[in-house]
User: What shape does this take?
Amino acid sequence: MEHVPPPAEELALLDRELARLDARRSQLLVRRTWLLSVLTPPAGPPAAPPVPQPAAPFGPPAPFAAPFGPPAGQAGPRSAQNVLLTLGGLLLTVAAIAFTLVSWGHMGISGRSAVLAVVTLAALAAPAVLLRRGLCATAESLGALASALMILDAYALHRVAVPEAGGAGFAAAASAVLAVLWGGYGLLLGRLRLPLPLAVVSAQLPLLLWAWSAGAGASVFGWALLLTAALDCAIALWGPGLAVRVTACVGCWTTGLLGLLVALSQSVSAGSVPDALAPAALLLAGAALALAGAWRAPTGPAVAGGVLAGLCAVAAVGGVLRAGMDWGWSVPVYLLCGAVLLAALRAPLPRPVGRGVVWASSAVTAAAVLSAAPPVGMSLMGTVSQLARVWSGAPDGVRGALGTEGLGWSHLAAAPVVLLTVAALLGLAHRSWDRLVRAAGPVLSLGAAGRSAAGAAAVALCWAGLTASPAVLGLSYAAAVPVQSALVVAVSAVAVQALRRGSGAVGTTALVCGLAGAVSTGFLSLAAETATYAVFAVLLVVLGAVAVLLDGAAARAARALPDAGAVRALRIAQAVPACGAVVCGTVLARAAGASLGLAGDRTAPVMLLVPAVTVLLGARLRGRPVALPVELTGAAAAAVAVVMAVPDLPFLALVLALSGVLAAGTAVRAERRPVAGYLAVALFVLASWVRLSASGVSAPEAYTLPVTLPALAVGVLRRRRDPEASSWTAYGAGLAATLVPSLFAAWADPHWPRPLLLGVAALAITLAGARLRLQALLLLGGAVLAMDAVHELAPYVVQVVGALPRWLPPALAGVLLLVVGATYEQRLRDARRLKETVGRMR
Assistant: This one.
């Protein structure tokens, strides 16, 4: 029988076994620690191995035992404890809420409030005892529970003691009391981490809730938010602990920005100066608060505080000065306030704060420039609408030419003023850069790149303001066109002077503005014929002069400067206006054809005058980097002429032939010959094909022979210069150009002259190849001759086969196979000999 001990004895046995297992585990852990110290020995002498403890009587031997550590991924005791405490506190909080809000048995709200108060006091007292015993996590959990219970106590107090009090007013008082209680509790028990941040959060509500309960206006709400932000700022600067300061900092930025947004909306909507004074005071108070907080803050928050202070000051002063104005003219007021803000560079501000103030001024300036951008864009892009009504007659005003007659330009009247003002300020900074560097040295790090950027921005904004002025002022079309043309001339002159002086940024910006203005002015001039000739003639002269002047500057720079990058930049800057001049010439040629009453296809030969001039210029500018862009632009003009001549095939053939002449003239120069030579041949061939098609010629030989004969002549010359050249290289393409299309035509031709002539020509080519030992002639001629013969003999073969008995073709095929099989070796030797013979041909 099997003995079963009683439960008490079995429990004692289990306890003893568990104790032995714990002792064995401790022994193995000690051994493991020693082994790790041996594998990674310290600087001193190696530690002696620990004395092994006696193993359990029935445990495994020590050398073979494995450590019994916790499984991988198992939560440690501290994390498990925190999870349990958090869950326990959460459940108790939920129970307290349910106990307070929901009727429980026969206990009324008063009874529940009393019980809840007792539990709250116990929960508040327990963390002090737990902290003295070192149970910090448990104390933290009970402290959180106590904080939640205090909120429930406040609710219960409202229901029991003052049920007639307003909810918002009581909540304001309760939040203030809770903030004080949580603050005192957190300071009393300094090791608890939650009460003090809770006090900061609760402090965000009293003033806001009080304003709500009093039915105050927007200004009171703004002041409430700003005062709350001031309290948060003080706590963020002097509060105890990182968590408290971070919480206060977040609250400061949140409430402060909300209050300033309220003030800004009131300032912008103010209709008179008295209405703007109250929000201005709030904005100035916000600026003072931001400045005070930034004065002692670290670098990042200090810069942000400086930015906020500067923006608030601009909004406050500008809001008072612009009160009652149209919004369009309010922008210059804010812009001037932002410019005056730069006077803070001379104030004894900390460097991060001063940098933030400068960034605020820059932000105001950038916003003003962006607000003035729409009329500039409309002045530039609106001219494209003239493409749909070329030479339709000069409109009444420039706004009509832009297609924006119904637009409210009166609201955009301040845009040129804003752009020109900013341009003047940047130009002054560019000229007085050294003085500005000395003034801003303690605040900003300014270098030579900043000076170049200021000059470039000044040029761009000045040009933009002047470009938008005609449309904003509502000038007539006759006045706007000369103004825009003069602006192009002026900015081009600035570009040339700057690039010749070495001011790359300023010169490049001016050149880009000049080109953009040239394009816009060119489109604008398309409304009237006279304006088109005048504007494009001026643009042709101006762009050509810019290219010539920059060419001289690039040549001098190449001789004087070792910097290849600067010379390359000048070459690129020279090529762009040179190509623009070619485009202007193309437009003038097209306009001349239209003035002469020529249709589009008839105007195409006139337009070829432009590429003819570029060919001559290319020969004159040989070796200059600008030559290739000019010639390519001329080639593009020739392509446009070809496209225009497509509706009329005879004129198309003429234009192609003339283009081929121009390409052949270009190919005279050795550096252009590899491309221009092939292009000339292709154009001549296309011209002949188009001419033949226009004449109703459909024979393929008429199209292919003009290609074959020159190709064969070139092949003969090639073989004379290089006797080792392959016959395929010399003659293959030329022969195939005629033989292959003719073979296809012969197969589809029901008459006999074409196949006969093709067979004779193929026979002659085959014999010539055999005589001259030229592989290309022999194989191409033989293949075409064979195919042509098959085509001619096929009907007769079909007739003969149809007249023979049906058994005869298989019999003949069998005999043929027997003969070939009997003489296979000889035929194989003959085939090899033929292959070697053909292979020895060129």
User: Anything to note?
Assistant: The longest helix spans residues 7-39. The chain has 33 helices and no strands. Residues 718 and 730 are 7 Å apart (CA to CA). The two ends are 112 Å apart (CA to CA).
